[in-house]
Every structure is written in structure tokens, then in C-alpha cells.
UniProtKB/TrEMBL annotation:
InterPro entries referenced in this protein's UniProt entry, alphabetically: CheY-like_superfamily, NreC/VraR/RcsB-like_REC, Sig_transdc_resp-reg_C-effctor, Sig_transdc_resp-reg_receiver, Tscrpt_reg_LuxR_C, WalR-like
Keyword annotations from UniProtKB, A to Z: DNA-binding, Phosphoprotein, Transcription, Transcription regulation
Domain Response regulatory: residue ranges: 4-122
SMART domains (UniProt xref): HTH_LUXR, REC
Keyword Transmembrane helix: no
Gene source species: Streptomyces aurantiacus JA 4570
Record protein name field: Putative transcriptional regulatory protein YxjL
């Protein structure tokens, strides 16, 4: 299957560079380009995009608002958003994940990293760039954004998980793949995938990135150093 990619960035030159790179791959194609968030939302739906490379800072409707709009639209439940940032240590990173982004990547990433990010997001995996470590994400999540009204509800939702699902969720929050979790828990990768899918369904998570957010926000996993 060909991965349908939408490019959303207010810099035309950067979009052009991304387009050449993406279109050079046999398993993906650029189906649209947007210069602001509102246009990105319209095109993501109209062009049935699989992955949106979304700049955080754009004029008008920014990438954060656009990501939230895509995430909230049931008709685009399959769309995965990868946020592009100039500075990876960014206050908007966690807000992006909370808004529904599958992950983020610095604009200075190598071409192979960018292409890999698209494939990872399309597969429903969580994407955290090498510079932005899990510990950094945890730190931001612990600081919060001044709105913790959903924290108790998130914690209560964990009651729906079985003991094994909680155990798997902890491993997912640690950034481990299904194969790595399977080896650590001495079960099959298929069993891990089943537990992950059930946890996502029970917690209303779109993908693994959202599971990571919930694991930290609920207190199931604590930031490093605490």
C-alpha cells in the first residue's frame, strides 16, 4: 500500500524539499501541500491522507490547533500527525501529543529519519525523535500545562485495565517495541499486540503515543529522577 502524505508548513521551499524526498520513495506519495493549519485540516480529509507532516508554528490556525481538529474528527480517525519542530525542546511538544499527534521530529532530521518517521506513524507506532528522549517527554508531562482537570479521570480509567495490560502499558511508556516487551515479559509479540490494542480501546487512545501520555498523566509511570 502507498502511504499518502500531506505536507503542512508555511515555508514553500521546505515543502518542496520534503515533496522531492517523499515522492522518491516507492511506498509513499505527497497528496497535498498546505501553508496553514486550516488548509491542512481540509486537505487531510479531502485527500484521505494517511500521515500529515505538520509544522507547529504557522500563521492563522497553527499546527497544534489543526492537529486537535483532525484528532477530534471521527472521519479522520486513521490520520496520523507527525509534528515538525525547529527546536525539539519545545513547550508545544507535549501539547501536540495531547492534541493527538503520533509524535514529533526536528526539522534538522536526516532524510532517512524523516522517511522512517512517516512509516512509523502510518503503522500506528509512537514516534519520539532521538534528541527528544522519553525522559524529556516525561518531564514535560509532569510539569503539565496548567490544566490537570482530566488527570483524576485518566487515573480512574486505568481501573478498566487488567494487571497484564497495565504491565504492558508501563513498557510501552518506556518506549519499548512489541518484540522488546514480549522478550521482557516472556510472551509472544502477538500477545503483546493484543494487550496493547485492548488497552488502547479501553483508554480511548488513538495510538501508542497517546498511551504514553495517559501512562504519565495518570501517574502509572513517573518521570525519571522522581
Amino acid at each position: 500500500m502507498t502511504i499518502r502524505v500531506l505536507l503542512a508548513d508555511d515555508q514553500a521551499l521546505l515543502r518542496s524539499a520534503f515533496k522531492v524526498l517523499v515522492d522518491s520513495e516507492p511506498d509513499m506519495e505527497v497528496v497535498g501541500e498546505a501553508s496553514d493549519g486550516a488548509q491542512a485540516v481540509r486537505l487531510a480529509k479531502a485527500e484521505s491522507a494517511d500521515v500529515v507532516l505538520m509544522d507547529i508554528r504557522m500563521p492563522g490556525t497553527d499546527g497544534l490547533a489543526a492537529t486537535r481538529m483532525i484528532s477530534d474528527d471521527p472521519a479522520m480517525s486513521h490520520v496520523r500527525v507527525v509534528m515538525l519542530t525547529t527546536f525539539e525542546v519545545d513547550e508545544y511538544v507535549v501539547q501536540s501529543l495531547r492534541a493527538g499527534a503520533s509524535g514529533f521530529l526536528g526539522k534538522g532530521a536526516e532524510p532517512d529519519e524523516l522517511l522512517g518517521a512517516i512509516r512509523i506513524a502510518a503503522a500506528g507506532e509512537a514516534l519520539l525523535s532521538p534528541v527528544a528522549t522519553k525522559g524529556l517527554i516525561a518531564k514535560f508531562l509532569a510539569q503539565g500545562d496548567g490544566s490537570d482537570s482530566e488527570a483524576p479521570a485518566r487515573s480512574e480509567r486505568l481501573d478498566a485495565l487488567t494487571g497484564r495490560e497495565r504491565e504492558v502499558l508501563v513498557q510501552v511508556a518506556g518506549g519499548l517495541s512489541n518484540d522488546e516487551i514480549a522478550e521482557r515479559l516472556e510472551v509472544s509479540p502477538l500477545t503483546v499486540k493484543t494487550h496493547v490494542n485492548r488497552a488502547m480501546a479501553k483508554l480511548g487512545a488513538r495510538d501508542r503515543a497517546q498511551l504514553v501520555v495517559i501512562a504519565y498523566e495518570s501517574g502509572l509511570v513517573r518521570p525519571r529522577g522522581e
